[in-house]
Amino acid sequence: MTQAEIKLCSLLLQEHFGEIVEKIGTYLIRTGTQPLRMIVNDTGLLLDQVKKALCVLIQHNLVTYQLQKRGFVEYEAQCKRILRILRYPRYIYTAKTLYSDTGELIVEELLLNGKMTMSAVVRKVADRLTETMEDGKTMDYADVSSTFVRLADTHFVQRCPSAPEIPESPEAPPPPAPTLVVNEKDMYVVPRLNLIGKGKRRRSCDEEENGEPKAKKQKRDGESLEPPPDDGIYWQVNIDRFHQHFRDQGIVSAVANRMDQTSSEIVRTMLRMSEVTTSSSAPYTQPLSSNEIFRSLPAGYNIVKQVLDQYLTLLADDPLEFVGKSGDSGGGMYTVSILSGFGSRCARIFRLLLRKKHLEQKQVEDFAMIPAKEAKDMLYKMLSENFVSLQEIPKTPDHAPSRTFYLYTVNVPSSARMLLHRCYKSVANLMERRQYETRENKRLLEKSQRVEAILASMQATGAEDAQLQEIEEMITAPERQQLETLKRNVNKIDASENQVDETIFVLESFIESTIRRP
């Protein structure tokens, strides 16, 4: 765990969960697995504060626990999972693209709460969607449930591990911590729920201040005081499935750039056919026959079987090996290779070294057609930045410079790790810059929020335009311009974070593929 990663984890925890949770999380990242007693002693926090912080971290899968043989429980931070907080907006946007607003809110609620029952998610999302609808319109629970089922069928959401039911025995005391298990067969099975109802709008402040008992309110709203039928069955976002989707999109885009749109559509169809049956860490998709691929092409996509076979042959013969042939049955069996070539948009010399593997300085000058002085300067600069490495091959045992070959080469995995480290550092800097911008304009932001609240209240009571104009003028023209500049800067920082995270995903995927590659 590098210092840049630790710093980024700390910033993410502080921004999303506050100082106490950040302190506990950072402590576990730096010290490794620790029992509760050590966490309390070393952080100086109260026992109750530590327990609540650990509950929050466990709820969001950021910390795991393990029961030791001696009977005490140890807690361990999941650094990689903490870094995934950075990718939450991308998960939510993908859900919106695939499953519209309902899918977006389902994924957003699960990410915000860590784990939820299906019934709780459906009610919450239906209420939120109803709030955005015109008066008189509501969102039906059945529509939200349908989208939830689709997300589970495509494995974007999954069941959480649960504690097995153990009959209570007076002789054997319960364990200090439950052992959670997951049934692979039931991981994506949605419980049969008869959720009947519609989303509800939030009541006004006047209606809430009448002191109505909670039980009476629940009865009036149609909510039962009994536990829901899916009580104890919790769901979470399947992050690996989203990563698989991102990877598939990258492969389709690479095929389109390399060949044409028809080739990319064929590969997209193959990936869609095997998205549920292929593990996110598998090097290849499940074999698919040419006949199956032909039948699964999008409706209205005019391509005959013979042309499809020609495209599949071209894809299989391409040096980058996006598609591989694994048999001849069913018109030919084909797979999509997940470990495709690692593209690079680096300078000409870097691309040259990637292709030729080892070159002397004179060869670099000749092949790249770059003047000697310029090539020398560029090679030394890349050498100092660890993008290329220098290998000495002596002709004689004395290692005399005049009788030694000096070969430049590129260690791609090492370069990828270095770039990944710089990306983590960049995101941490961007987050600190956003916090600085917000902190410097805190007074103006609070004033703007107060004015907006007053305007919303007056509009709700039917205030006249002149009154509203007078309230709006509480923020002067220079202040309004300053707010616009702040908004523009923060938006740029947010966009930059998302762009850097896309690079992080590509680099992490490449590094993981080199580790898995035999």
UniProtKB/TrEMBL annotation:
Compartment(s) of residence: Nucleus
The chain positions of domain DNA-directed RNA polymerase III subunit RPC3 winged-helix read: 340-410
Instruction: List each copy of the RNA polymerase III Rpc82 C -terminal domain by range.
Output: 146-336
GO CC field:
RNA polymerase III complex
Q: Which domain of life is it from?
A: Eukaryota
Q: Where is the composition biased (Basic and acidic residues)?
A: 211-223
Q: InterPro entries from the xrefs?
A: POLR3C_WHD, RNA_pol_III_RPC82-rel_HTH, RNA_pol_III_Rpc82_C, RPC3, WH-like_DNA-bd_sf
What positions does the domain RNA polymerase III subunit RPC82-related helix-turn-helix occupy?
Answer: 7-65
Subunit structure, interactors included: Component of the RNA polymerase III (Pol III) complex consisting of 17 subunits.
Q: What is this protein called?
A: DNA-directed RNA polymerase III subunit RPC3
